[in-house]
Amino acid sequence: MFAKALDLPADTLILDLEDSVPPEKKSAAREAVSEWLCHADFGQKECLVRINPQDSVWGREDLKTVLIHGTDGLVLPKVIKFAEVDEVAQAVTAMEKENNLPEGCTSLILIGTESPAAVFHLHEMAGHERVDAITWGAEDLSAMLGARAIRNQAGKYLEVFSFVRSSCLLAAAAAEILPIDAVYADYTDCRGLKQECHDAADMGFTGKMTIHPDQIEIVNTAFTPSDSAVAEAHALIAAFASAQAEGRHAFSFDGRMVDAPHLKSARHIISLAARISEQDDKP
Predict the structure, then answer these.
(1) Largest CB tally within 10 Å, which of 28, 110, 133, 216?
(2) 0.70 cut: is pTM over it?
(3) Distance CA 12, CA 8 (A)
């Protein structure tokens, strides 16, 4: 599975030491991941490791071992408050110095909604200087709520989970970090995944977690600006330049009124498309 992952068209690979590993296999999984970090060629892919919570019997050793063997970042599950994030960040900083690593080279990605309490601290946690992205998950939260379902019969999130999803997006936007949408658990439902990806991209999420190789192309397509969207963004920027030369900052474009927020959105689309193109061109 490790070897196969290297050939997948994913931007980031997450090696998991937490929920997918039973307690009796934790040490063996840590050794396997450490070995892979030492010898695998990830190319242009980002490599992250989801470690166990720091208050568990495995968390500290996960943190120490993973950093020694090299990773681009850590995925932190079940964090609740800023202090917990900061404790990990301080430990990471100390270990970077001890191992002669560039300061700040290890990013933190939060799964910040796995308990009800965490939802109320998303803004503070997302604002930590070491945090680069935040994602969310419904399964652990569902268990803590005692919820009987996550989605309704039409496949849409129930209200509380929709609220948490939006809270994650808003916290990331406020902190100017990447908001990553949660996994779509039914990996056989390509139509549902496609719709959820497009909804997430329309809302402002910049990517989505996947749990099966068949999901990756659908996610990549949904979050990559289309050629027509990029062309329209360029046309809108050109129209703004003409309008502003005439002293107008709000005008009609393609049958709708546009102003400054639309210009900002157009620039964002072009910037995103340029970053994706640059990444694809790298060897």
Answers:
(1) 110
(2) yes
(3) 10
